[in-house]
Write a structure and sequence with these properties.
heterodimer, A: alpha/beta, 4-stranded antiparallel β-sheet, 10 strands, B: mainly alpha, ABC transporter involved in vitamin B12 uptake, BtuC, two-stranded antiparallel sheet, two-stranded antiparallel ribbon
């Protein structure tokens, strides 16, 4: 791991029963980076994020975070350590208000200072007493990211954040990601290549459970034809 | 129909419904949060009854017996959760159901070994009758109803006003997402199991003056408790309360019309409700592990 290294995934193999989903996946994530993982449906992107965040246990390989082996640790412990996963289903607790959704994250992380996250999402201030079940897709995504940001996590793993959202909300989210990156490393699984080229410092294209290349040059990220890689 | 008989039957139905509520609430919470059908709750109900009987026999106090029954039932449920369920939460629901049924049967065997096969009578701790709408009703049955109301309010306050309760409610929607917020869901599972076991023990203890305490009392309750949970909607506290009152009344008033109806009618009501609303009265479609 380099001096700037925050998280290293080494030769990770993951399987669902007999079906293997990841094959010797290795990635390196450094401090102050925005890393995107791109690929078609079923390429293994979500599996990779879920394994890093402790929801899946790998068959072999390791995940090193801040020079500590965290392979196979339970998700709640990793979340407390600051590895937060935002799933793609945009599901907030529908029976709980936005305030209660945030309270739960505060309870989990011990961070009760909401000023920062409500600064990113001022719209949520007006929605604090609304139940999660009555929020729009964009609002739910805001709540999920706000929840994950409590505790000032060093790394945020976000799965398909713009999927199904209106273009103006996608633009808002890109702006917010640009601000969040000052405090947290972002690892984003994304199919929207405009978003990827707009914010990424590094891109890992995935295909059939394998990392097929690593693109670190920002100009190359903007110009590369991902269609050919995937 | 005689009005006094009707009022008396309603009180009878409410008190039976209250016992069903205390049993079904644990079953419902366990399914909602952990996705297990915890038939072993009926064992803690039986343990609650036997402990109440034993303490009453030796010390002479029903109410101390009830308190000890709750503590012992909760403790046994905690041991079972730590030794058995903690290892099988990830297994299929049928696996956990069969396991819990096995625990219930094994527990019934132990009860038979300790207390024998002879049914034991428990006298009512309160013999006083009170007048309700011109009808004399046993005060003990009214107290059972009041205790169930008190428990419902407590559980409501716990689930809605405390952060741990809110985490349990969130976990009923999606336990994995709760874990993703840095909350140890397995601790919530243990706590829920403990509460469920204690309430089942309380239900068993409260039921003792109304029935004979016998080793199969838990097994006999299975169909009724299942009905309550299914009618109310798995995981719903409000639904469990309303359905336990419905089942209690249907049994009680059914018996008033025609005795065999008391056992058949709740099943008919359950089928009717499931046809109209397959998730039960307050069951959520959002339930997901």
């Amino acid at each position: 791991m380099t001096a700037d290294g925050l998280l290293n995934v080494n030769n990770l193999n993951v399987a669902y029963g007999e079906a293997k989903a990841l094959f010797d996946v290795s990635i390196e994530i450094n401090k102050n980076e925005v890393v995107s993982i791109v690929g078609r449906n079923g390429a293994g992107k979500t599996t990779l994020l879920r394994t890093i965040s402790g929801f899946l246990e790998p068959v072999s390989g390791s995940v090193i975070f801040n020079n500590q082996d965290i392979t196979g640790m339970p998700a709640f412990k990793l979340a407390k350590m600051g590895i937060k996963y935002v799933p793609q289903d945009k599901m907030v607790f529908s029976d709980l208000t936005v305030r209660e959704n945030l309270e739960l994250s505060s309870y989990g992380t011990g961070d009760y200072n909401w000023e920062g996250v409500l600064g990113y999402f001022p719209r949520l201030k007006k929605l604090l007493n609304n139940k999660g079940g009555y929020l729009s897709g964009g609002e739910r995504q805001m709540v999920m990211i706000a929840r994950a940001l409590l505790g000032k996590p060093p790394i945020l793993l976000i799965d398909e954040p713009t999927e199904g959202l209106a273009p103006n909300i996608v633009n808002d989210l890109i702006d917010i990601f640009k601000r969040i990156r000052e405090d947290s490393v972002l690892v984003i699984v994304e199919q929207n290549l405009t978003v990827v080229s707009g914010i990424s410092d590094k891109v890992y294209p995935m295909k059939e459970g394998k990392i097929v290349s690593q693109i670190t040059d920002r100009e190359q990220i903007k110009s590369v034809s991902f269609e050919n890689l995937l | 129909m005689n009005v006094q008989l009707l009022i008396s039957s309603i009180i009878f139905g409410l008190s039976i419904g209250s016992i069903y509520f205390l049993l079904a609430i644990g079953l419902s919470l366990c399914f909602g949060l952990m996705r297990i059908i915890s038939l072993d709750q009926l064992l803690y109900y039986s343990i609650g009854a036997y402990i109440t009987y034993t303490i009453l026999t030796f010390i002479g106090s029903f109410w101390i017996g009830l308190l000890v029954a709750m503590i012992v039932a909760a403790s046994v449920s905690l041991i079972v959760e730590k030794l058995v369920f903690k290892r099988i939460y990830e297994k299929a629901i049928t696996f956990t159901m069969i396991t819990s049924f096995g625990i219930l049967l094994a527990g019934v065997g132990i009860i038979k070994y300790i207390w024998g096969l002879v049914p034991r009578p428990v006298p009512s701790p309160i013999h006083k009758q009170i007048i309700l709408l011109g009808t004399e009703v046993p005060l003990y049955r009214v107290i059972v109803i009041l205790i169930a109301i008190f428990i419902y309010i407590d559980i409501w306050l716990f689930l809605n006003k405390t952060i741990v309760g809110k985490a349990i409610r969130a976990g009923i929607e999606d336990a994995e997402k709760v874990e993703g917020l840095g909350i140890n869901v397995y601790w919530l599972f243990t706590l829920t199991f403990l509460i469920a076991g204690g309430l089942s023990g309380l239900g068993g203890g409260l039921h003792t003056p109304l029935i004979m305490v016998d080793p199969h009392m838990g097994l006999e309750m299975i169909p009724f408790v299942f009905m309550v949970v299914i009618i109310g909607g798995l995981g719903s506290i409000k639904g469990t309360l309303i359905s336990s009152l419905i089942v209690g009344q249907v049994i009680s008033l059914g018996a008033l019309i025609w005795a065999p109806l008391s056992n058949m009618a709740p099943f008919a009501i359950m089928i009717l409700i499931l046809i109209v609303k397959p998730t039960g009265l307050y069951g959520s479609k959002l339930l997901k592990r």
